[in-house]
């Protein structure tokens, strides 16, 4: 009998197994058709759903499809795309490119409704181009899991989702810059009694004033994430809601200002994780937080508490993650922090904390991460190593102490942190050598020591760091030789940043490094004189800077084959020679190339349209620029910054600017370019910096240039431009900071429209053919009236493109202190007016003295008359004054003695008289500054008599008669003038006809005289 029963049981088992096997060989036909229809409406650029084919009858084996192993019904669809998660930049770039190629798009077809048994749908991290979430999803009643996060949906979240009564997981969250979802209310949520996980991050909930009440009706909810949801309105009192099951709450990055509106949060006794970061809380950390005794994770980062850390916070014995960074916390860290015995991560970075790191921190045996950067510890690094020498040193993996006002030397105690993965000590004042014990950090992957005062040589023990991926030791005082031994085991190294040290690399010519780098920044090393051939082995190099490394060699041809992989390439400030080949540089992203200050020759190369920054200045390049500008005119150029100045380029610049509309800065200066400026230059509507100085350009400035209304710098000096200064310069270029038109053939008056350039800091109109008076409206140059430079357009230009890049493009030749000086790095600090070497007449307008931020004023070689303004002494910033070779008269104003910064003064060859005012500055100047006048006193050798001090301009009494002395010359001259005036004008006053004829003759004579003057000019 038992045998019969065993036979029956075995038979049933086999039967059921056969049913199972049979169900696995095919899916339900209707569901298979539904999936094919669904696929038809999707955009699948990488053909991820290639297995979804009509010829394959078993949809249960298709990618992303999970079926019931007995019934064959489709239960799950896993169609998410995978956003990069790596921390390595180069790998991230590759992963992101792969991600962009793989994301689904298109339309969600209603054929999904035929999947009656579907319980799991994941379409996250795709791109549905802001289309609304389909309402029909609310009819898929079997769904338990719905994930549409980061999928590019937009519009109103459909209330029909409230019909999914079996739903356990709902995620509609997105990033702060990508999600366009919103709700009018959340009443539909109350129909989801089984919901455990709800994520509406980045959806706009500002109109859902009842969100707390509605969400509190979800009895099973354990995880709620509402970051970036515009939650700034009224929150109900604590007694009206019930969140007893909630363990995770994320309200980060909203606009919540008052912690009193969160009283209901402080009653969540079962809460394990609370994230209130990046809100607008002020005042002390709310004391009611101590009620949350079960907390494991507390994040208050990015608020403005403006208080000390309360002692009760250190009583959270279960707390594992404490994040209080960037919260304006003050005071010290008390020793009671040692009570956080469960702590795994502590982040107190970027506050106003000071004092010393407590030794009790070293007793937290579970601590894996310590972030204390951006505070004012004012402590030696060796003291901190001692404080952390307890049991924490055995498990510590992340130590961040950069920008923490640390000093002292690195000691051998550094080697005790054998499990350290991340060590950031940059931006401090740490000195001394790197200890040999650093080689003991066998787990180290990321090391940042940049911007310190570390000296000595690089220890060879670096070669023991086999897991090291990132090394940044830039801007220190390291010197000596780096050899192959230093990289003996650096197989994982991907980023090496060590610029601005005095290190020399000495390796074999045939050395092949064990690493494959993505970043290599060795600026100011000694790599020469040969070009480092080992670079040819780096297959994944994207960022390379070997500028100023004493290389005086030709670039190996194979190196140019690597050009397609570069995002940043800097070979500048070497002596590299040879021709630059035509580089296709087919890059998927914008790239930057700097080969300036070398000896490259030949023609300008053809460059890919994807290059965004190109600097080939200060080389020996020659020939025409036209083939460069007009290359691939069917492609729009991404170029934003182009500098080919200081070469030997020649010929005209043709009108191929239409595709260059992304240009912010253009420098063609110091070449042999000629001809007129093409009108197509007006296509550069985003242009902010234009340098054409020291060429042979001629003709008039094209009126189309006024379309470039964002110009900050216009430097066209030392050319052969003609015509009057265009009025539209003052009318259109409201942001202009630098205007240099010097050494051209401009003629006519200085237009008063220029006075509208209130941001102007440098005005150079020297060495032209300008005449007339200096406009009195110069006091409108308000940027010259102040010493404040921090918010001007030139400063904003630097912020836009980066200070380092702007200094490559922004420079100016100025005549200051009698010398031609080139300003670049300090250009934004210079304020100068140069109107010298023209034919300007009239008086120096007293309004110029309102420009109290002006540093240099040059009006020399004109025909100015009158006195130097008496109150010139109020221009306290003046360092250089040149009024030489004019017709100025009168005394040197006494107020000039107040110019304490004045180091250059030239008043020579005028008609000045009297005594040179006494001051420390004026008497220290050369005598040549005052010659060619009727002056006396130091530094001149002529001493002053009484009459020299007070010129004889008053009527003096006769020595013989005690009365006024009569000067008969002036009496006779006055009588002669009266008689002559009467003879000429008397008949005119008596005879009207004579008056008409006389004035007609004067008009005719004036027109003839003006014609002669115009021909001369």
UniProtKB/TrEMBL annotation:
InterPro entries found in the cross-reference section: Leu-rich_rpt (IPR001611), Leu-rich_rpt_typical-subtyp (IPR003591), LRR_dom_sf (IPR032675), LRR_N_plant-typ (IPR013210), RLP23-like (IPR046956)
Extent of the signal sequence: 1-23
One of the Pfam families matching this protein, by short name: LRR_1
Membrane topology of this protein: Single-pass type I membrane protein
GO cellular component terms, A-Z: plasma membrane
SUPFAM superfamilies (UniProt xref): L domain-like (SSF52058)
Domain Leucine-rich repeat-containing N-terminal plant-type span(s) in chain numbering: 29-67
Subcellular location: Cell membrane
Entry keywords, A to Z: Cell membrane, Glycoprotein, Leucine-rich repeat, Membrane, Receptor, Repeat, Signal, Transmembrane, Transmembrane helix
Domain of life: Eukaryota
Positions of transmembrane segments: 968-990
Major location category of this protein: membrane
Protein family membership: Belongs to the RLP family.
Name by which UniProt lists this protein: Leucine-rich repeat-containing N-terminal plant-type domain-containing protein
């Amino acid at each position: 009998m038992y045998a019969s029963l065993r036979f029956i049981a075995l038979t049933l088992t086999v039967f059921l197994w056969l049913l199972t096997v049979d169900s696995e060989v095919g899916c339900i036909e209707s569901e298979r058709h539904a999936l094919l229809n669904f696929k038809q409406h999707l955009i699948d650029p990488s053909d991820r759903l290639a297995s979804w084919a009509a010829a394959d009858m078993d949809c249960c084996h298709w990618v992303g499809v999970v079926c019931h192993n007995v019934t064959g019904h489709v239960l799950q669809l896993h169609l998410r795309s995978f956003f990069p998660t790596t921390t390595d930049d180069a790998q991230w770039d590759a992963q992101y490119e792969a991600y962009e190629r793989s994301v689904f798009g298109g339309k969600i077809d209603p054929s999904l409704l035929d999947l009656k048994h579907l319980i799991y749908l994941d379409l996250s991290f795709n791109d549905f181009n802001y289309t609304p979430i389909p309402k029909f999803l609310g009819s898929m009643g079997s769904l338990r899991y719905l994930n549409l996060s980061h999928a590019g949906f937009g519009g109103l979240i459909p209330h029909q989702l409230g019909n999914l009564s079996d739903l356990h997981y709902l995620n509609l969250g997105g990033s702060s810059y990508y999600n366009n979802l919103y709700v009018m209310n959340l009443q539909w949520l109350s129909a989801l009694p089984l919901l455990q996980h709800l994520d509406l991050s980045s959806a706009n909930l500002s109109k859902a004033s009842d969100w707390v009440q509605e969400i509190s009706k979800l009895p099973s909810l354990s995880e709620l994430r509402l970051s970036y949801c515009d939650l700034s309105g009224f929150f109900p009192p604590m007694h009206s809601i019930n969140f007893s099951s909630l363990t995770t709450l994320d309200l980060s990055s909203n606009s919540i200002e008052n912690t009193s509106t969160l009283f209901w949060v402080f009653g969540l006794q079962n809460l394990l994780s609370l994230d209130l970061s990046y809100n607008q809380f002020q005042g002390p950390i709310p004391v009611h937080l101590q009620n949350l005794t079960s907390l494991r994770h507390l994040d208050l980062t990015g608020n403005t508490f403006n208080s000390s850390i309360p002692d009760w916070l250190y009583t959270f014995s279960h707390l594992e993650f404490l994040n209080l960074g960037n919260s304006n916390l003050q005071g010290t860290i008390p020793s009671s922090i040692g009570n956080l015995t469960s702590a795994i991560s502590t982040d107190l970075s970027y506050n106003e904390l000071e004092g010393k790191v407590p030794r009790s921190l070293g007793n937290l045996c579970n601590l894996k991460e310590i972030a204390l950067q951006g505070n004012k510890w004012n402590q030696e690094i060796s003291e901190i190593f001692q404080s952390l020498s307890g049991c924490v040193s055995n498990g510590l993996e992340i130590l961040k102490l950069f920008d923490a006002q640390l000093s002292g030397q690195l000691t051998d105690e550094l080697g005790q942190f054998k499990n350290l993965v991340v060590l950031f000590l940059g931006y401090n004042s740490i000195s001394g050598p790197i200890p040999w014990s650093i080689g003991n950090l066998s787990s180290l992957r990321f090391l940042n020591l940049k911007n310190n005062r570390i000296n000595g040589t690089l220890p060879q023990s670096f070669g023991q760091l086999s897991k090291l991926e990132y090394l940044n030791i830039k801007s220190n005082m390291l010197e000596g030789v780096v050899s192959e031994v230093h990289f003996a085991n650096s197989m994982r190294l991907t980023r090496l940043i060590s610029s601005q040290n005095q290190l020399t690399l000495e390796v074999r010519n045939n050395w092949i490094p064990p690493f494959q780098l993505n970043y290599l920044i060795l600026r100011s090393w000694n790599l020469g004189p040969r070009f480092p051939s080992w670079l040819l082995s780096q297959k994944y190099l994207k960022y390379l800077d070997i500028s100023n490394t004493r290389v005086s060699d030709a670039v190996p041809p194979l190196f140019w084959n690597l050009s397609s992989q570069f995002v940043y390439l800097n070979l500048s400030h070497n002596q590299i020679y040879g021709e630059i080949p035509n580089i296709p540089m087919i890059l998927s992203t914008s790239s930057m190339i700097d080969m300036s200050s070398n000896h490259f020759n030949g023609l300008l190369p053809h460059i890919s349209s994807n290059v965004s920054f190109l600097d080939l200045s200060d080389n020996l390049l020659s020939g025409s620029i036209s083939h460069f500008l007009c290359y691939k005119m069917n492609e729009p150029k991404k170029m934003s910054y182009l500098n080919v100045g200081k070469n030997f380029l020649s010929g005209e610049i043709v009108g191929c600017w239409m595709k260059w509309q992304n240009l912010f800065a253009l420098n063609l200066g110091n070449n042999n370019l000629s001809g007129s400026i093409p009108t197509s230059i007006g296509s550069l509507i985003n242009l902010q910096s234009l340098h054409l100085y020291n060429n042979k350009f001629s003709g008039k400035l094209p009126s189309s240039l006024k379309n470039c209304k964002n110009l900050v710098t216009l430097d066209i000096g030392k050319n052969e431009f003609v015509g009057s200064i265009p009025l539209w310069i003052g009318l259109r270029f409201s942001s202009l900071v630098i205007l240099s038109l010097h050494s051209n053939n401009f003629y006519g008056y200085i237009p008063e429209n220029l006075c509208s350039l209130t941001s102007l800091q440098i005005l150079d109109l020297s060495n032209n053919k300008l005449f007339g008076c200096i406009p009195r409206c110069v006091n409108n140059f308000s940027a010259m009236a102040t010493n404040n430079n921090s918010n001007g357009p030139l400063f904003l230009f630097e912020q836009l493109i980066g200070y380092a890049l702007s200094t490559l493009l922004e420079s100016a030749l100025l005549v200051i202190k009698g010398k031609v000086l080139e300003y670049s790095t300090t250009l934004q600090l210079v304020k100068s007016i140069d109107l010298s070497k023209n034919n300007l007449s009239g008086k120096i307008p007293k309004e110029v003295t309102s420009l109290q931020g002006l540093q240099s004023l040059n009006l020399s070689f004109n025909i100015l008359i009158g006195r130097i303004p008496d109150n010139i002494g109020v221009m306290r910033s003046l360092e250089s004054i040149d009024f030489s070779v004019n017709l100025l008269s009168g005394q040197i104003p006494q107020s000039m003695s107040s110019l304490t910064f004045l180091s250059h003064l030239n008043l020579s060859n005028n008609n000045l008289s009297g005594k040179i005012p006494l001051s420390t500055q004026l008497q220290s100047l050369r005598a040549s500054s005052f010659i060619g006048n009727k002056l006396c006193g130091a530094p001149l050798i002529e001493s002053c008599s009484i009459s020299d001090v007070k010129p004889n301009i008053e009527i003096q009494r006769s020595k013989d008669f005690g009365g006024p002395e009569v000067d008969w010359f002036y009496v006779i001259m006055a009588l002669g003038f009266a008689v002559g005036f009467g003879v000429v004008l008397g008949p005119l006053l008596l005879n009207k006809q004579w008056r008409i004829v006389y004035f007609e003759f004067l008009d005719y004579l004036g027109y003839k005289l003006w014609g002669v003057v115009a021909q001369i000019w």
